[in-house]
Design brief:
- It is a single chain.
- Helix content is 64%, strand content 0%.
- The chain has 206 residues and is mainly α.
Length: 206
């Protein structure tokens, strides 16, 4: 079962790279995916979240920022435990993939293990936090995180299963912690967060 799943994963990765090589590969697109991958960097994510928290909830930005930081740390620990336990190599370490004419690696090949993707985990921690706190632009944050995750396939450093697992870990870790601490996030006189309860509408009898 596991061997079959890995074979499907490799086949899907090669299919993506066949499409990339024949239809997407271009210096401008290469540059775009190379730099959007920085949204999977913990320092960049923390900076973005801090900026939007300060802009929207100036008086209470510290609490959501601390929860996001804890989400990054705890999910990052799990990702690194899995990396060192599973020991799955990067795609370019496979002779089958490396010798395929349409496979490319953009930038320096990474030497660490690949499963799961830490960049995908980080990007989806940010997406879940932004969606949960600010209540808007759901598709924007989800699409941005998805592009960040896909960039890891595009530049040749992760398999699809790597980014899927990392994305799920990041999103659900972040969502779980924000739900757990939702009652302590905002004071009464702040902007209405996503999880705020709406006051019931009272009907007046004529």
């Amino acid at each position: 079962m596991l061997d079959t799943l890995i074979e499907w994963d490799i086949s899907l990765y090669l299919y993506f790279h066949w499409i990339i090589f024949h239809y997407l590969a271009h210096p401008a697109i290469d540059t775009f995916f190379h730099y959007i991958a920085f949204l999977g960097n913990g320092f960049v994510v923390s900076g973005l979240f801090l900026f939007f928290s300060l802009k929207t909830h100036k008086k209470v930005f510290l609490k959501p920022f601390l929860i996001l930081s804890f989400s990054l740390l705890s999910s990052g620990i799990l990702v690194n435990i899995l990396k060192t336990s599973v020991h799955r190599s990067r795609p370019f370490a496979s002779a089958k993939i490396r010798n395929t004419y349409y496979h490319r690696v953009i930038g320096e090949p990474m030497k660490s293990y690949g499963f799961p993707s830490g960049h995908s985990q980080t990007a989806f921690v940010l997406a879940a936090g932004m969606i949960f706190i600010f209540r808007k632009n759901f598709f924007f944050w989800f699409a941005l995180a998805s592009l960040t995750a896909f960039s890891r396939i595009y530049i040749g450093v992760h398999f699809p299963l790597d980014i899927l697992t990392g994305s799920l870990i990041g999103f659900f870790f972040s969502l779980f912690l924000f739900v757990i601490f939702r009652k302590t996030l905002f004071e009464k006189k702040t902007a209405t967060p996503f999880f705020a309860q709406k006051k019931p509408i009272q009907k007046t009898l004529l």
